[in-house]
Structure formats: C-alpha cells, structure tokens
Amino acid sequence: MDDDGLKYVQYDSSKESTYLAAIRQLISNDLSEPYSIYVYRYFLYQWGDLCFLALDEHGSLIGVVISKLEPHRGGPMRGYIAMLAVKKEYRGKGIATRLVRMAIDIMIDRDADEIALETEVTNTAAMKLYERLGFLRSKRLHRYYLNGNSAFRFVLFVKESALTSRLGYDDDDDDENPPELPPSA
After folding, report:
1. pLDDT of res. 185
2. Which terminus in the chain has less CB density within 10 A, N or C?
3. pLDDT digits (tens, 9 = 90+) for 158-181
4. pLDDT of residue 97
5. Tens of pLDDT along 69-84?
6. Among the listed ranges 83-92, 107-116, 125-134, 154-163, which one has the minimum average pLDDT value?
7. Cβ 133 vs Cβ 127: under 8 Å
8. Exposure on the CB side of residue 79, measured as CA atoms within 13 A
9. Which pTM value belongs to this model?
C-alpha cells in the first residue's frame, strides 16, 4: 500500500472473475465508447501484463489502464494506451498519472519505440495529463468516436529513431543538408 492507502497492481488473469466486471463498469462510466466483453478480453488475454489497476484500501477498483505493445505496420514497436479510467471521487490525486507511467515504463522496458493513444478533443484533463507526460499531438481524427466526437492522437516518442523517422531523417542523413520541408499553407 502507498501512503495514501492505495495499491497499484499489474493485472493478473487468474483474478479475471474478480476484476473484469469492475473494469468494464469503471470504463463504461467514464469513456464514451461502448466496448464489448471481447474488446476487453482481446487486450487482457494478450497484454494483461501491460495493464495496471489502482485499488483502494478495501481492494476495490478505482482506476485502470489497459495497454498493448506490438510492431506497427512492420515498423517500430508501438505501445498503445487503449483505455484509462479513474473513479470521479479519486481524480486529481495523481492516480491516472501513476497508472500511465507504470504502463509507459513496462513498454519502454520491452523496447517500445513509441507509444500512442487517442482521446476526445473535449477531454482537456486527459490532454493535459498526456502532454505533461511528454506526449505530442500527432493528428486530429474527425468523428472518430461512435458518438460523433473527434479525437486527437497523441504519440510519445520513446526512442530518437522513432521521432527522426517520422520527420524524414535517419542516422545516415547529412546534418548540413536536411530534407526540405513542404511550404506551409
């Protein structure tokens, strides 16, 4: 237990019967997307070790982050933060930050080049959290969610090679002759 009485644990598939219903309830209360049981199982069965829970002093779920890590289109190892939720009465206490940092740390330990996520353009608290953690807005995704809301994709470039490849540079480029950037509109 932490000083605040909270316990942070890695998801354990042997406790699915204890936590899966609570995870689904917490996420359905906070996120606009309605996820089926199969979406949760997709992440938790394959990447359960990249998912973390915050529990109160009674062992009740108060926060969760669900993530994955795999090669992206045959290129860089991309971590992905699929879902993050914290009960309303526990927000503003650093729980989401701690959960996301735990997910980031394990993805970095497993050689992630970059970590991506999406969040609704109206979710300013989430955007501030991710920007504080070093994520950059990558693009706007119009009408991304089923409710019609748009999203921002955020990316955290973990390795310099992931960032430079996105910008059109690589280790063999001559620093004195960088590629030309397109004219701004």
Report:
1. 39
2. C
3. 987 555 555 444 444 444 444 444
4. 97
5. 998 887 789 999 999 9
6. 154-163
7. no
8. 31
9. 0.83
Cα–Cα distance measured from residue 12 to residue 176, given in angstroms and rounded to the nearest whole number = 51
Token duo for residue 13 = 């598939």
Q: Give the residue from 105, 100, 104, 137 showing the smallest Cα distance to 118.
A: 137
- Amino acid found at 129: L
- Could you write out the three-class secondary structure of 67-129? EEEEECCCCCEEEEEEEEEECHHHCCCCHHHHHHHHHHHHHHHCCCCEEEEEEECCCHHHHHH
Which residues 6+ apart lie within 8 Å of 119 measured at CB?
126, 127, 130, 151, 152, 154
Give the Cα separation of 165 and 69 in Å (integer): 19
Measured CA to CA, the distance from residue 41 to residue 45 in angstroms comes to: 5
- Name the amino acid, one letter, at 32: S
Question: What phi, psi does 142 have (nearest 5°)?
Answer: -70, 135
